[in-house]
Amino acid sequence: MTIQTPVASKGCSDVPVLRERGQREVFCGLTGIVWLHRKMQDAFFLVVGSRTCAHLIQSAAGVMIFAEPRFATAIMEERDLAGLVDANDELDRVVARLLERRPDIKLLFLVGSCPSEVIKLDLSRAAARLSRSHAPAVRVLNYSGSGIETTFTQGEDACLASLVPELPDAAPNAGKSLIVVGALADVVEDQFRRLFDQLGIGPVSFLPPRRTSELPTVGPQTQYLLAQPFLGDTARALDERGAVRLHSNFPLGIEGTTNWLRAAADAWGVSEQHFNTVVQPPQERARKALDHHRERLADKSIFFFPDSQLEVPLARFVSRELGMRPIEIGTPYLHQQHLAAELPLLPQNALLSEGQDVEKQLDRCRAAKPDIVVCGLGLANPLEAEGMTTKWSIELLFTPIQGYEQAGDLAELFARPLVRRSRLEV
Amino acid sequence: MQLTLWTYEGPPHVGAMRIATAMEGVHYVLHAPQGDTYADLLFTMIERRDKRPPVTYTTFQARDLGGDTAELFKNAVREAYERFMPEALLVGASCTAELIQDDPGGLALALRLPVPVVPLELPAYQKKENWGASETFYRLVRALAAPHAPPADWQRPAREAGRRPRCNLLGPTALGFRHRDDVKEITGLLARLGVDVDVVAPMGASPSDLARLGEADFNVVLYPEIALSAAQWLQRTFRQPYIDIVPVGVTATREFIAAVATLSGIDASSLLAAEQSRLPWYSRSVDSTYLTGKRVFVFGDATHVIAAARVAKEELGFTVVGLGSYSREFGRELREAAKAYGVEALITDDYLEVEAKVRELAPEMVLGTQMERHIAKRLGIPSAVISAPVHVQDFPARYSPQMGFEGANVIFDTWVHPLMMGLEEHLLAMFREDFEFHAGAGPSHLGHAASAPSDAAPAQAPTREPAQAQSTISMTPADVCWSDDAQKELMKIPFFVRGKARRNTERFATERGLATVTIETLYDAKAHYSR
Ligand code: SF4
Ligand code: SF4
Asked: N or C: which end of chain B has fewer CB within 10 A?
């Protein structure tokens, strides 16, 4: 990957990182389907995998609420393993049946899993074949959400990266445009859109779009802002299309959001004065909202288990805006270049760890006795039973947390478990 | 390849986890990629367990595949042994590791650990969760009890005079539907009969407990899906008889008591005379008349479906209009049971087929899993949950067994309550505008807004799909319209049956291709459905 920012070279080498390779306690990339299918309302996700894959998604999603979810699994059976020809025929049959049932689907993602990868079922060829046979009604793309290739949020990265070649070319005379990359809640998207409008930045589009017919155009005059820290492959794919990344923090908390907006404002030559006029009112509101929680959270120690790759910007937010003390900041993958603006803002004494050996990390966590632990659903209750206070990290993906108006909500996510514990007298 | 939107059962290694997690002193090393660790949350979140399941995952990655995944596995076994010091180890592969064929059993045995190592072969592309649980329990029992097996010509001696009869309770697991409370209920029942429970397994048992299973006089198989094959092996090996009458409902409980009495040579008549459930009297009480002939559809695992159908018919006076199960292994038993109700068993693990069946039968109540509860909710039908797969709501704080006499009381309440509430809701509805087509105002008793942690998370996901959730609430196509006078006539029908009359009439009209409902149609339909 090309290093484009002056800070990056520093970021890539200087930060001491504990690298671990042991048992990981994280979801695989298939999990991203849970939020992606709700964001892209006319897309369907078909996992080509095993019963385990199907069970993972339904356990993570609790899909029983829906009449018919927009994702499914083509569960491979004994005979699919015997011959790849048959597996491809079977896949064609399953897709045909699915599309017949759901004529509303415009875009179908074939999502690879560990089993499909281990048997080397070539889903990109399958996608091309199926795209031809179901054109023009349905476009078929593929990406891997497998646990041997992707960790949790990397599934979103792989999905968005597979969309990038689909983006139409921007007209040569189209002029500057901005793409915000990374799935955001609609409400957050709308807030950002209003802010960009007020700043005079535009045209702005979002990837992924709400409807796949609204894919943004891309070209050398396109600049993009990453809204999420886990989008390495997507960024690379956009770079290949000639788009230019705006370097910044991630839009978590007041500081992150301000720097993030400022990166775009600078690229659009927005004056400092105008920028401040636009961002001051929401900043003020966010500050009030944070004040409320700071009392409770200041000086509390916090321990992050690796999960979503949001850990680094979150640790920056809780330490700088809430006065919390990160003890360990675990992340499944430390993309130093994308985190170049974040890493220097982390407190010096926090341990940064990449990868995982869950038993050893639990030992460290127990020894550190943090006031609050951010971890996955498998660990939360056992740690609570040991007397620790926990916050489930998956909620950070399902809840709108980006931008000024959500800064208070984000703080509240950390405050609530502590408040709860202090209230309970049993 | 099987197109699956939702599945009743997980993969077979999740069944193995249910055994390992239920037990003490067992550790399971699973050759699996990182995503498979999701299974931990089933136990820690749905069942609210306060400990992680005793499972170590190797979490191999793509870059390991070229190298030595076998070495990775051996290290994981070694480290897990040193850290957890289990009395016995289970080793096996999940679906992905099955494909790379590292032979976990062979690798673990080669380490020569000083504890029994039980290799599990659970074909992930053929079998499912309950089979995996059953197979794991059977393998464990075999591995640990076989060394204590008597010679082939041994005969079980008669019980020594003065010693109380002893039995084992087999089948309760982690993540089981009310297993925790069933064990307590049945243990109490047996104690009152004068029978001691020696070992409960797998729930709460250690490997050394499994080693002494053969000492009891007989086995009680509470959940045949899990423990029947182990019990059959124990019978062959230790000449240890078993009882597999599932004591759900008053009659089955009494039959169970009689069977225990026969096997242990004790007299149960005084207990049978004294033991009471409130169910028989409550069912006879005149306020229960409205339960008569309620048309129910039953779906779930084989054990609970067969038992529930019988209770529904014989103890509550319902009519079983359909019955089915996802337990293919028990197809024969299910088909047999279905005959008693003059219906055909629906054996499938495709919930869409189940939903289609419910629509077709239009029952007045659905007894099923959490999925059927959702189906029923969408269709506006009262429902109660009788079987796994489980949900956080299936682990109530209060004592709430399904088995024994107290279980019968619980069943009466949980099945009748939604029907009774249905009546009350209609009273409330009287003060509203006709609510039948007002999708947002579903009666509150038809299931609650999803409250599982697994549900709660996506409920806050970025975008919502309200239309999808609501569009299926009405059971009838909206393209039937009502003539004014038919509409007026409908309003004269008492409010508490009006909804049903409307649905039936519209269905009747649709089936006959009538676009408009007239007064004639209304009464034709009434005549048709009052057959
Ligand atoms: S962390 Fe990112 S930028 Fe740094 S070397 Fe690795 S890929 Fe390149
Ligand atoms: S880790 Fe692999 S096998 Fe497991 S659920 Fe994820 S994709 Fe499927």
From this structure: C
What is the helix (H) or strand (E) element at residue B527, kind and residue range?
Answer: helix B519-529
Residue A222's Cα: distance from chain center in Å?
Answer: 22
**Extended beta strands in B126-254, E state:** 166-170, 196-201, 218-221, 242-243
Note whether B253 and B404 are within 8 A (CB): yes
A125 burial type by CB count under 10 A (0-12 exposed, 13-18 middle, 19+ buried): exposed
Pair A151, B38: CB distance under 8 Å: no
What ipTM was reported for this prediction? Answer: 0.92
Q: Which domains does chain A have, with CATH numbers?
A: 18-24+285-425 (3.40.50.1980), 29-150 (3.40.50.1980)
The B295-300 sheet, strands edge to edge: B345-347, B319-325, B295-300, B365-368, B383-385
A155 close to ligand 2 (CB < 6 Angstrom) = no
**Helix H or strand E segment including B232:** helix B224-238
Q: What is the DSSP string of B114-159?
A: SS-EEE----TTT--HHHHHHHHHHHHHHHHHGGGPPPTT--PPPP
Q: What is the dihedral of CA A259, A261, A264, A267, to 10 degrees?
A: -50
Distance CA A351, CA A349 (A): 6
- Protein residue closest via CA to atom 5 of ligand 1: A12
Q: Nearest C-alpha to atom 8 of ligand 2 is from which residue?
A: A53
The minimum CA-CA distance between B46 and chain A, rounded to whole Å, is 10
* Amino acid, res. A57: I
What CA–CA distance (Å, rounded) separates A211 from A379?
36
B471 contacts in chain A (CB < 8 Å): 67
Phi, psi of A26 (to 5 degrees): -140, 155
Classify B76 in phi/psi space as left (phi over 0), alpha (psi -120 to 50) or beta. alpha
Asked if A26 reaches chain B (Cβ–Cβ under 8 Å), the answer is yes
Give chain A's radius of gyration (CA, Å): 22
User: Which of B1, B37, B459 lies closest to A75 in CB terms?
Assistant: B1
**Chain A residues 214-253 with a CB less than 8 Å from chain B:** none
- How many residues are recorded in chain B? 531
Question: Does A31 contact chain B (CB < 8 Å)?
Answer: yes
Q: How far apart are CA A55 and CA B8, in angstroms?
A: 9
Strand extents, DSSP E, A1-56:
18-21, 43-49
Q: Is the CB of A56 under 6 A from ligand 2?
A: yes
CB contact under 8 A, A26 and B100: no
Contact at 8 Å (CB) between A50 and A76? yes
Q: Which two tokens stand for residue B194?
A: 């004068």
Residue B75's CB is within 10 A of a number of other CB atoms, namely 14
Query: Tokens 């069942």 — which residue?
Result: B47
pLDDT in tens, chain B (531 residues): 999 988 999 999 999 999 999 999 999 999 999 999 999 999 999 999 999 999 999 999 998 987 789 999 999 999 999 999 999 999 999 999 999 999 999 999 999 999 999 999 999 999 999 999 999 999 999 999 999 999 989 999 989 988 999 999 999 999 999 999 999 999 999 999 999 999 999 999 999 999 999 999 999 999 999 999 999 999 999 999 999 999 999 999 999 999 999 999 999 998 898 878 999 999 999 888 888 999 999 999 999 999 999 999 999 999 999 999 999 999 999 999 999 999 999 999 999 899 999 999 999 999 999 999 999 988 889 999 999 998 888 999 999 999 999 999 999 999 998 887 655 554 444 444 444 434 344 444 444 333 333 333 333 333 333 333 333 333 344 578 899 988 888 887 766 677 778 888 888 898 888 889 988 888 888 888 775
The alpha-carbon gap from B178 to the nearest alpha carbon of chain A, in Å, equals 20
Tell me the residue length of chain A.
426
